[in-house]
Amino acid sequence: MGPVSFLHKDQKLSTWKGDLSKMTHLQAGLSPETIEKARLELNENPDVLHQDIQQVRDMIITRPDIGFLRTDDAFILRFLRARKFHQADAFRLLAQYFQYRQLNLDMFKNFKADDPGIKRALIDGFPGVLENRDHYGRKILLLFAANWDQSRNSFTDILRAILLSLEVLIEDPELQINGFILIIDWSNFSFKQASKLTPSILKLAIEGLQDSFPARFGGVHFVNQPWYIHALYTLIKPFLKDKTRKRIFLHGNNLNSLHQLIHPEFLPSEFGGTLPPYDMGTWARTLLGPDYSDENDYTHTSYNAMHVKHTSSNLERECSPKPMKRSQSVVEAGTLKHEEKGENENTQPLLALD
């Protein structure tokens, strides 16, 4: 191991300023810390950034069966970042991104927030998106599984809403580098609901997120999962890459293990955090803007800092949301639960979407 260098704060700033002098327009807006993180973790080099992008672009000719509908520098760059600047892997992901859309044309017809199916899913909180990022700069996405009303939202529309949300979020270069965290609360998720999670639709979701989208997922956290969610893992395991099996954490009702990975100050109270309860309308209002209307009165003002105007226009009857079920998570502040050997297995990482 080489020597470790401990630089004074002023020396670090000087080094960052030197890096900034070599920064291309594709890195404009990134903080010096994020630029350094991209260099260390993703092998991003501003000196050869345009060459890396062109090498990926030159590979497009090898796949005449795929319509590459977007090939600009900024778009290709997010695939390079998702695959740590391995050009062949980045191109493979780029090809799979467009191939997935070709093979699932119906999913991407009218692929925008005001599509009726996507709109219903967004209003019902699929997904939730926290305003603030965690201590690693990652965006935190939430799914409250019990809110899935299967008479109202198809699984496909929920997946479309998630993919659309990721498309919006991945436009932020900071998130291309820092990535995402997904927390799924399975409180009150019934066996009947789980029975609708068939292998085919789970495979569709895995292909869309693991294999075909340029996002870095630092972890997928299950909270309050029942036994049959454990059983679902055996269904999806054949569809997962070895690397993918490393970052789902099954916490059960032990939120202290969640807090060891995501600090409580970044989490709403449903997950034992110090923030107010999550406002289910936050992200829907962000994407829908004036088209958003909700018969429920959302009053959790701490999540209103996104400054999205909430208008009171009437929404179609079919889009009016039903009351949201809330998480039943409970945790004692500052107390680490010591588990028996069998219980401890529930918090081990099983898969990732990275």
Automatic annotation (TrEMBL):
Every CRAL-TRIO domain range: 118-279
Entry GO MF terms: phosphatidylinositol bisphosphate binding
UniProt-annotated location(s): Cytoplasmic vesicle, Clathrin-coated vesicle; Early endosome membrane; Golgi apparatus, trans-Golgi network membrane
Region annotated Disordered, chain positions: 311-354
Protein's membrane topology: Peripheral membrane protein
Positions with biased composition (Basic and acidic residues): 335-344
Main location: cytoplasm
Biological process (GO), any one: lysosome organization
Alphabetically ordered keywords of this record: Cytoplasmic vesicle, Endosome, Golgi apparatus, Lipid-binding, Membrane
InterPro entries: CRAL-TRIO_dom, CRAL-TRIO_dom_sf, CRAL/TRIO_N_dom, CRAL/TRIO_N_dom_sf
Compositionally biased residues, Polar residues: 345-354
GO cellular component labels: clathrin-coated vesicle; early endosome membrane; trans-Golgi network
Origin superkingdom: Eukaryota
UniProt xrefs under PANTHER family: ALPHA-TOCOPHEROL TRANSFER PROTEIN-RELATED (PTHR10174), CLAVESIN-1 (PTHR10174:SF72)
Annotated function: Required for normal morphology of late endosomes and/or lysosomes in neurons. Binds phosphatidylinositol 3,5-bisphosphate (PtdIns(3,5)P2).
Protein known as: Clavesin-1
Species in which this protein is naturally found: Camelus ferus (Wild bactrian camel)
Name of the gene: CLVS1
